[in-house]
Give the backbone structure.
Amino acid sequence: MGELFRRLRYLLFHRRFDRELENDMEFHREMAARQGRQNFGNTLRLREQSREAWGWTWIDRLLQDLRYAARILWRSPGFTLTAIGVLTIGIGVCVTGFTLLNFLVFRFLPVRDPAALVRLQRDSPEIHTSETPYQSFLFYQAHTKTLSAMFATMGSPAMELDDDLRPVSIDFVTANYFSELGAIAATGRLIDPHRDDSADAVPVVVLNYMFWQQRFSGDPSIIGRVIRLNKKPVTVIGVLSNFSATLDGSNTDVYLPIKQQPYFIEGSRALTDVFYGGGVRMWGRLAPGVTPKSAGEELLALTNDLRKLYPKLIWEKEYIHIDPGGHPAILQPEMLRAFALIAALLLLIFIVACANLGGLMMARSVAREHEISIRIAIGANRKRIFRQLFTESLLLALLGAFSGLTLSYTGLRIIAAMNPTPAWVSFAPDWRVLLFVVGIAVMAAIFFGLAPALQIARQRQRKTMVRQILVGAQIAASCVLLIVSSLLVHAVLHMMYADPGFGYEQVIGISPGLDGHGYTPQAAQNYLDTLRGRLLGLPGVKSVALSKISLLGNGYTAYMTVDIGGHPVNIYPNWVDREFFKTMEIPLLRGRNLRPGETHAVIVSESLARRQWPGQEALGQKFGDQKDLVVGVAGNARIKALNDGDAVEAYWAMQPSDMASMTLLVKTAGAPDELPPMMKSIAETLDPKLFPYIWLLKSGFREFTKILENTAVGVSVLGMVAVLLAGVGIIGLVAYSVSQRTKEIAIRIALGAKPLHVLSVVLKQFLIPVLAGAVVGAMATAGVSQFLRKILFGISNLDPAGYAGGILVLIAIATAAALLPARRALRVDPMSALHEE
């Protein structure tokens, strides 16, 4: 304890100790001189040894190194600003990526006790769904002991507000939804379990804050006003605060009590029929001291009890899957793949920036040769010099890292301000982001500062191996980014202009939502037949088809997994009528069309036929569980998998049980934009309680490609940033090479060497690393493209145009960057250069 106290005293009062030590040393030196001893010893060394004995002098030395590093960097403002700029970009993009990951996955939502919040989903070895029948939810809610509360949300087709044609997004929520989240109202009140949890209660609605601002201009008098949703009167009781978060990442316009769902959707069986196709999304709150594992075991037992009540409802080996629910997003496998791709691209930017700065550090070392030589000549330890040089790199990295943090935070704030973002969304750095910034700064200092510091301290600056490695690393990383961005741009163009295998530009989709309104199969058949006849009578309508799966609209993507050749393959099924192939312009290549109500007959796509029966005729083959006979082979159509060039499809004839869930596809002769209002009027005239959802398939197609466009633009920007950084780095490295070979160049010029020869001598040493980096980058991109092919259609294993274009652009930029400083070699004055040497 005494030793620790002594060290702390020195740390806090080291200046006083230093003065006392200096006085003591002077006293002992004078006493030695009086006694006739002339060799008292090196006073400075003895003083250092004394300081070591007091302890913790490494902090003092670190502060000295930092002060000296700050002075050195201050004296070289051009280099310092360039280095900080390079690090700001290289580290800033990495900090941006981590900040987004941190916000989505690690940070908690601003809700009550978010750590106890869990998301509950039905799961089994073969089937997974996020929705549960409402009656099942009530069973779990009534019997659970490990969850202190359960609540749920139910989606709904968009509704009409008053006479406004703009759709309004809806969420039905249990009455305890807002109270369990700890949400507050900006004005008015929220749904109350004691007042609004009844089908007989006065219909009420809570508005989303941004919806209130946009549609009602933030008018506070909206509270208590009666509005009409789907022509049903409902009283506005409150506006959800912009600082209150909701679950599932939803940006719903209005919230309604779930008990009032039948009031707005007449005939709906969603709350009463346990076998209803839809359901609710369940959430729960763990009781104090309960672990997710314990809650899962109890819910499994309750699921088995529920199987006794509804044997046909519960799947084999079904259980309730539990995920943390208090975060903005749940990390799914698709998100993991996307984050892995983004992380790899950002890491490449970081590597390019570090290699760039390493080259600049090497170039700058020439100007410090004299300083380092003097320090070594007067007795400086090489280890001490290395520590000082690395401290400079560390200080530079910290300045660049926190500059990158500022750039990242500012950029994210601007993006959030340009988009409708709730006030609770904040990208302010927390301890995880700050720790990441410090960690990546130390890593950057090691990457760009370690090798130059070792070489400078050892006075081996003239070796070219490190420079060549730096050039190769920059070229390889930049090559990957350029080629990947080229592939993504190519994929966008392919998606937008290549034939997807079906006609969509002149097709309108109509989803009447008959199943949600309790239509029986026969009533649905009558309604659809009448609606089809009315639609065919509209001018410009060529054909009308029925499809169970919604296409490029608001429906879900259904697929089944089958084993083909020992490998699982996703097959996209659909149940259609005879007009489907004609309306969607999907050719029947062989065989016949489906017959109305036909069972155990299937039409497969050409890609499925080729993969399932290679080298054989698919017609007449047994498919699936060996009960369905292949009666036709259709052309490939990536209707539900636009990003999959190898998508395989299968079509069955629609059955009477499917009628209530069918959608209509209307093919027009000209532009379809003017027909939706007339179609909507016809559909509502046949049954006023219906509010069909109508969309243009071309709009859905554009929405999908827009996501890909944004991805390609982002990656292209990263690619150009990498090339810019690589260009700056190559300029520094070539400048360093010119400065190192000044004497040789001067002699060559004095002997009459031609300018072209001098340039070739300077640039020749960079030829191999540039080519090697391009080759390594191309090989690495080949591996990345294998991953991209799984998520993006239009990317092939080898795209000659993309690879050649990326490599040629990179080599051209590298050459231009190298020529700028290399021209200095042609302006060298032989006499002056030789005189300096």
Remarks:
- The first strand starts at residue 117 and ends at 123.
- The mean pLDDT is 79.
- The radius of gyration is 36 Å.
